[in-house]
Amino acid sequence: MMKKIFLILLVFTVTLMYSQEKSSIKKSFFGVQAGLFGANVYNEVNLSEQFTLRSEIDLNAGIWGGDLYSKTGFALAPALSVTPKWYYNINQRHNKSKSTKYNSANYLSAKLGFVPDWFVISNVDGIEVNPMISLIPTWGLRRNFAKNFNYELQLGLGVGKILKSDYSLQVVPNLSFRIGYDF
């Protein structure tokens, strides 16, 4: 089942990347971002002036240590997401002659995420990931600097469900600050 979900998301992302129209306005772009707790590759498709659909492949990081643990550990695990975004102030930014390149504006979104148990990169043996699906309403701020560089802040709180029996719904935060490059 997890492989089918990944395959569907991958086909959807590739289709969106190659279905862009040739014009002076970017209908679709992709980029990479990195932050303190991971990195991602994404594609964002403009559906209208204010609405986009973003698909991502993340490598999320976890770090633990201190007095309670015998050694400091880290883990990197993949995650997939599809996120419709509403850039609610992009027209106002454009009217004030502020940059809106690569959707430089504030937005509201609903991030649908999937964390599979494909692999974990860690300095500790035996680490596993519980597969999970989540929906996180998020407020975000995206700005560009230099030529194609960007930074993005995301603040959200939603729900998630581990896809194993005997797990109930959980609160899932989305707190990130990442710096990236748009192609």
Structural class based on helices, strands and sheet pairing: mainly beta
N→C terminal distance: 32 Å
Strand-residue proportion: over 45%
Helix content: 10-25%
Radius of gyration using CA atoms only: 18 Å
Q: Which residues form runs of ≥5 with pLDDT under 50?
A: 16-25
Shape: globular
Order of H and E elements: HEEEEHEEEEE
Q: Can you characterise this structure?
A:
This protein has 183 residues and is mainly beta. It is 13% helix and 54% strand. The protein is built from two helices and nine strands, in the order H-E-E-E-E-H-E-E-E-E-E. The protein has an eight-stranded antiparallel barrel. The protein is globular, with a radius of gyration of 18 Å. It starts with a helix and ends with a strand. About 5% of the residues have low confidence.
Q: Which helices and strands, and how do they pair?
A:
Layout: H1 2-18, E1 28-35, E2 38-46, E3 51-64, E4 73-86, H2 90-95, E5 106-115, E6 121-122, E7 132-145, E8 149-162, E9 170-182
Antiparallel strand pairs: 1-2, 1-9, 2-3, 3-4, 4-5, 4-6, 5-7, 7-8, 8-9
